[in-house]
Each structure stands twice: as structure tokens, then as C-alpha cells.
Write a structure and sequence with these properties.
The protein has 131 residues and is an alpha+beta fold. Helices cover 34% and strands 34% of the residues. The protein has helices at residues 2-26, 44-49, 58-66, 96-99; strands at 31-43, 71-75, 80-83, 106-116, 119-129.
Length: 131
């Protein structure tokens, strides 16, 4: 009788492990939706290293972008969105040229939003200064 209980417990634990692994792998799947992202355009280094809720200044964001730092959108909820080119563009193109005029400003960006493993990206279809 003890062997049957041990076997059932062992199978239950194994099933739970398999389900947890499958669930964790599911989190790495790419999610894709049309959405609007509102937030500040700033350089990626400051978004991560300075714990900012908004850019220091437009001049600072521009200087960093001109030095090669990718511009990102820091959303109101604290998520960072990496602007990317669409899949029709090969090779992929950086989006700094498109975002330079919005550096340091709050924007509303509409497009296709991707999420994977805690990272966010957006293929911007329309961007404008937030009202």
C-alpha cells in the first residue's frame, strides 16, 4: 500500500513540475496586440540606471541619443517600451531618428505592442506629443 501512495505522490509532484515548466515557458511566448503607449521618450541608459519617472531634460535625452543610446518610451506605469521596426523591414532599423523630435517629451504612441519575458517593444504606427 505504501508503494502505491508513494507512486501517486511521485506522479503528482512530477505532473506539477511539468505544468510549472510549461507555464514558465508560456511566459516567454511573444504576445502581440494593437495598443497605445503613453509615456516619456528618454534614452535607454537613464531609463534603467537612474530610476527616473521622467527625463532629466530634452537636451540630456538628445545628447545621449546622438551619442548612440537608443531612445525608449518610459510608460506611465514604469514599463519600458523599445521602439522597433516592423517585420517587413529587413534588416531592422533603429528608431532614434523618428523619436528625436520627441526626446524628453511625453508622447502617445499607437501601434503593435509586443511582450516577451518581461520586455516590451512597439512598432509605432502613429506618435504625437501627449495632450
Amino acid at each position: 500500500m505504501n508503494r502505491k501512495v508513494t507512486l501517486v505522490v511521485g506522479l503528482t509532484v512530477a505532473l506539477a513540475v511539468v505544468m510549472n515548466v510549461a507555464q514558465a515557458q508560456g511566459k516567454l511566448e511573444v504576445r502581440k496586440v494593437k495598443d497605445t503607449v503613453k509615456g516619456y521618450v528618454l534614452d535607454s541608459a537613464c531609463a534603467f540606471t537612474k530610476n527616473l519617472s521622467k527625463p532629466v531634460s530634452a537636451e540630456c535625452a538628445l545628447a545621449c541619443a546622438k551619442a548612440g543610446s537608443p531612445l525608449v518610451i518610459l510608460a506611465d506605469n514604469g514599463d519600458v517600451y523599445w521602439p522597433i521596426s516592423d517585420t517587413a523591414s529587413t534588416p531592422a532599423k533603429g528608431q532614434n531618428d523618428r523619436l528625436m523630435k520627441f526626446a524628453g517629451q511625453k508622447v502617445s504612441a499607437q501601434g503593435t505592442v509586443y511582450a516577451k519575458g518581461g520586455s516590451h517593444a512597439i512598432v509605432i504606427e502613429k506618435i504625437e506629443a501627449a495632450k
